[in-house]
């Protein structure tokens, strides 16, 4: 495994998720550095993972082989501008930001760069992450391997052939943990409305969600529709609930939500 010196610019939710996966997989803490303006997140990362931390983006980036840009898209231009005086010729830059096209970064950093775009998700924090990765033709096999090693430590990776594919990755896995959380939240609320204690409603809903996901994963020979049919006894309770979702056009609503997610990524590509 290639072990590069990695610096995360921005120490928020996703940086924490990725570092957690890296350290759990034995990536040396001494090779990981995170920067952030506020102190609290840095203290927590240092305490939990024994990594290097600082407020100085430029010094940390200068010392790194791999720079992971992990700030909100609206801050990316300013953050890159403040790194643009560095010589980045021998560094690999990885971005996890939604929306911003790969070509935009060399403008922000004011020099030619080697950049890989990725789209991880928060379950990376517990080893169940899913990351989509896009690299242009200028990226070497070794650079791709470094990126894959970093992102794979938190879960699975999938390479996409075109940059547009990353927007579909956002809709399918980057943003989608929130869809499932919303569904589970709604189930718990309904259970509570019907009189169930909240802790029991949560246990019932979360274990059903875990079991359903594992059923999909462990039964690749079956379609997801077949797994659903297997729960639906004719004239039974599940059929009544599923009919209710279908009458409300759940499939159409999911499609609309995912297309809106992609539209927002495309809007962001024009904005930032
Ligand atoms: N959350 C998610 O599920 C996913 C997010 N992403 C992408 O990841 C990126 C980060 O998102 P997320 O981790 O959720 O966001 P967070 O807001 O949790 O983290 C961003 C961090 O950047 C820090 N920051 C702000 N300004 C600077 C600066 N000048 N230099 C260094 N750090 C700075 C913030 O510090 P402070 O709080 O102190 O201001 C904050 O800790 C985004 O671009 C997003 O599109 C990608 C996939 C999934
Ligand atoms: O909501 C967002 O913009 C980011 C990208 C994917 C998940 N969170």
UniProtKB/TrEMBL annotation:
Pathway: Amino-acid biosynthesis; L-proline biosynthesis; L-proline from L-glutamate 5-semialdehyde: step 1/1. InterPro entries: 6-PGluconate_DH-like_C_sf, NAD(P)-bd_dom_sf, P5C_Rdtase_cat_N, P5CR_dimer, Pyrroline-COOH_reductase. Its EC number is 1.5.1.2. It is an enzyme of class 1 (oxidoreductase). It holds the Pfam family F420_oxidored. Keywords: Amino-acid biosynthesis, Cytoplasm, NADP, Oxidoreductase, Proline biosynthesis. Coiled coil: none annotated. Its main location: cytoplasm. Residues 5-99 form the Pyrroline-5-carboxylate reductase catalytic N-terminal domain. It is found in: Cytoplasm. It catalyses: L-proline + NAD(+) = (S)-1-pyrroline-5-carboxylate + NADH + 2 H(+); L-proline + NADP(+) = (S)-1-pyrroline-5-carboxylate + NADPH + 2 H(+). Residues 163-268 form the Pyrroline-5-carboxylate reductase dimerisation domain. Belongs to the pyrroline-5-carboxylate reductase family. Catalyzes the reduction of 1-pyrroline-5-carboxylate (PCA) to L-proline. This is Pyrroline-5-carboxylate reductase. It comes from Shewanella litoralis. The gene is proC.
